[in-house]
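Our preliminary data section would be incomplete without showing what the modeling component actually yields. Below, a chain of 330 amino acids is followed by its predicted structure, encoded as tokens that our downstream tools consume directly.
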Amino acid sequence: MTAYRLFGAETSPYSLKVRSALLYKGVAFDWVSRSVANEAEFRKSAATPTVPLLLSPHHAPAQDSTLILAALEAAYPDPPAQPEERAAQALSLILEDYGDEWLNKCMFQQRWGQQPDRDAAALRVLVQLNDGKRPRAFKAPAKQIATRMLARLPLVGAEPENAPTLENSYRRFALRLNTHLQDHLFIFGGRPSAADFAIAAQFQQMLTDPTPGTWIRERAPFLVAWCELMENPKASGPFEPLAALEATLLPIFEGEVSRTYLPWAFANAASASREKKRFSVTFDDGLFEQATQTYAARAFGNVRAEIAARMNEPALPVFLEAAGASTFFR
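Predicted structure:
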């Protein structure tokens, strides 16, 4: 038995995010697909009912994918998963949170907010819970899963009123990222960063769903190839200087990240600080309203603190200003 055990699910982007990072770091681990058979073992160590759950004899059980990746970077610095330039480090952290907190909404809405994606995903979840086998009587339990997940859409801000915004958002991002990946193996050069692990995991999920999967394959072939590479990524060169990335990295921020995620994260954090139950933010394509998410607010607070600590790097404020993002980090 290896030192690490990772409870996860193929239908969980955060599980894929952590698994990819462990593989990249060359850390030996056992992948435990969460199922009814191991549910009791999972619940002994899990603080929340969601995967991933990383167990180690040397550390407390961990379920926050961002904290897990940071701990792995500290414990296993080679190969590095953090750019050398402090400005690029900051941008990687922003993109990681974009993937975890905003792109996940897009994935969730595409999967559970429409057909045939919802029924197909419900069956995949059921098979996973049943140790990889489809039960003989599967229609009723699969329908129960679909109904339960449909009811969760408002909790993450993926209700029907927000669906057009979320669909347009992930498509803008996918096209810009596809352009960037034409000339760069990973987002920041020749090896993956936290941004790659977080964002690839969300798109890997979308590629398993009929509607977004078809759209992405038809329009973003470099993104598809990158998602395949991120299943077991290898360092193929150094991180590139930010100046060499900026031509196609800046449009990702200016054309999408600064238009949706950052205004949303800023408004959500403000709502959480005032202990409000709901908030709204106005985007170019209309009003976006949802329940306040306290975890996302804390995550964004951590990102802002990390950005503030790197603002003495001249390239960072220049990039953020050009991207229309400065106001969110003052």
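The domain at 4-75 is CATH 3.40.30.10 (Glutaredoxin). The CA atoms of residues 207 and 213 lie 4 Å apart. Preliminary results of this kind motivate Aim 1 of the renewal.
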